[in-house]
Design a protein that fits this description.
The protein has one domain. It has 156 residues and is mainly alpha-helical. It is built from seven helices and two strands. Strands 1-2 form a two-stranded antiparallel sheet.
């Protein structure tokens, strides 16, 4: 999934917890940011593995979207990393459970979206300047649904 979906999904979930007075606005936004910032490992892996354009965000993006010259996911996206993050969140919850909840929503929603693969997906493909674009029509519909949900939760 793309960054905007990794932001919208945890924000929508966190808004439900906000409505139940479990989370504050800053924690709602924090969960959305965590949902996106997990993908910083793509950039770090790109720096470690790229032979040219190591520090280029455009090269990182294009490798992730179109070229796939090497895997850009670190251990935090799979088994051992998930267990380590879970342990850290459990420790954090002992001291400040609301922060742990917001971080968990951001992290686990990201992992869920990354592992949500639909067979025979159809994609919108294009290019915006130097950036390649690829987004499934499912993700476009999901984004619209999330935006409507967020709007209802904020305004309702």
């Amino acid at each position: 999934m793309n960054l905007h979906t990794h932001f919208l999904f945890p924000v929508a979930i966190s808004l439900l917890f906000y409505k139940l007075n479990f989370l504050s606005w800053p924690l709602v936004l924090a969960s959305g940011l965590v949902g996106m910032l997990i993908d910083l490992d793509h950039y770090l892996e790109h720096i470690l593995h790229a032979k040219k354009n190591r520090f280029s965000i455009i090269a990182t993006w294009n490798n992730s979207i179109k070229l796939h010259r090497f895997n850009q996911r670190s251990f935090i996206h799979d088994g051992p990393g998930i267990l380590i993050i879970t342990a850290v969140l459990l420790i954090c919850s002992y001291f400040y459970w609301r922060l742990a909840l917001a971080l968990a929503i951001g992290y686990y929603s990201h992992i869920l979206l990354d592992h949500l693969h639909l067979k025979k997906e159809k994609y919108f493909r294009g290019k915006l300047g130097a950036y390649f674009l690829k987004e499934s029509y499912f993700e476009i519909w999901l984004d619209l649904l999330l935006i409507i949900t967020i709007g209802v939760l904020v305004l309702g």
